[in-house]
Amino acid sequence: MKGCRRLHLFTFPLFFLPFSLFTLSLFWGALHNKTKVDALFFVRPPFIIR
């Protein structure tokens, strides 16, 4: 039970990390008056490295 909870706490941030990066890039693009496509290209490189 403890091991399962530890795994859950470890995978929970990893699961929401891409969504947070995506929203941060969208807000960054909005601040710089860029399109959503530029934000997508800003998010994509880290996933390609993986």
Description:
- Helix 1 (2-31) packs antiparallel against helix 2.
- It contains two helices and no strands.
- The chain has a domain at 17-50.
- The relative contact order is 0.12.
- The protein has helices at 2-31, 36-49.
- With 50 residues, the protein is an all-alpha fold.
What does this entry show, briefly?
This protein is mainly α and 50 residues long.
Helix/strand-derived category reads mainly alpha
Helical coverage, percent range:
over 70%
- Bin the strand percentage: under 5%
How many helix segments? 2
Report low-confidence residues grouped into runs of 5 or more.
none
Element order: H for helix, E for strand: HH
**Basic shape:** rod-shaped
> How far apart are the termini?
30 Å
Entry keywords:
2 helices; mainly alpha; rod-shaped; about 50 residues
What's the SSE blueprint?
Layout: H1 2-31, H2 36-49
Helix pairs in contact: 1-2
